[in-house]
Amino acid sequence: MGDVQVDILTPNGMGGFAGGGSAGARLLANNMDTGALRPFIGTDGRPYMTVNVQGKPEVRPVSNATLRKDEWKQFDEAIVKAAQQRLRGVADLYSRNLVYRINNGLGTTVLETETMSDTEDAQVSMDAATRGRRDRPEFNIGYLPLPIIHKDFQLDIRTLNASRTKGQALDTIMAEQCARKIAEKAESILFTGLSNYTYGGGVIQGYLDFTHRNPYTLIAHWNDSAASGETILEDVLGMIQASIDDRYYGPWVMYIPTNYQTVLGGDFKANSDKSIRQRLLEIEGLEDIRVADFLTSDNVLLVQMTTDVVRMVEGLPIQTIQWDLEGGMLMNFKVMTIMVPQLRADYNDRCGIVHATK
Fold this sequence. Notes:
Layout: E1 5-7, H1 22-29, E2 40-41, E3 47-53, E4 56-61, H2 69-84, H3 88-95, E5 99-101, E6 110-116, E7 139-145, E8 148-156, H4 157-165, H5 173-192, E9 194-199, E10 202-204, E11 214-217, H6 229-245, E12 252-256, H7 261-264, H8 276-280, E13 286-291, E14 300-304, E15 310-325, E16 330-343, E17 353-357
Parallel strand pairs: 5-15, 11-17, 12-13
Antiparallel strand pairs: 1-8, 2-3, 3-4, 6-7, 8-16, 9-10, 12-14, 14-17, 15-16
């Protein structure tokens, strides 16, 4: 299966999903609600769709539908399960509620953000009537593109009919493959960025290419003979100090590449009763050490897990939409999500991300 696509939906279309076609027309007619592209056959045999009206789900009749509600449920369960298998760094953000959700994200192409400078210290006087200094903070405006990560698959009506007549569950392997590809792309963007993708005056950066991250040089490659438990501990303490020097005091999660995983399982010292990993996790503020598949060899990251450092901007949870092709003989499905990492620094470019290399 090929790579997923990353596109912005505009009136002129989106890779394989024309904004001016019937599917696009349905989205535009329903305020970009993807429920318009998830029609289902109700228990009464009639076609319906569910869309949000003022924050509440509303079931509306439509002219036609192909899938039953249970069949949609099979696809949804398959893609969510498959996506969760590889979303390690992304999962850390969701588990800590470091997520900024956008209403009608499909209709929003850019997120505008700003940073504010600090002001002078408060004054101390015996008379509160003393006129204070009226300084004004300065603001910087930034833009974050909100592209759609998506991948398509198809199902013909003969296969669907065979599933129904034989009483077998739908084969969801294609949906699972699409979801895995999307999960891998979202994870890859979080760690390595997508700096070659620009839109609306903004760029998408990841942990490894964020402009304001704090660099740190390792004493030695952790999987070299020159590295020991003590030198690795010294490296981690140095990374934490770099974060503290930039006024970010934790809590932190450390990400290591797969070639360092077994190293941390070794003894901290000769004949020690604890591993290197166990010793590192005794450091105050270091909450976890995670192996990241998309972190390239010999790169170590220390990330403060707070919203002023990193958050996932979610414009659309991962889901499947559908429209007909070839007169209804084929059904085209698109697994899609809007999930973009937003890495953040303060007005003075201080940052809670430390990137260590050798």
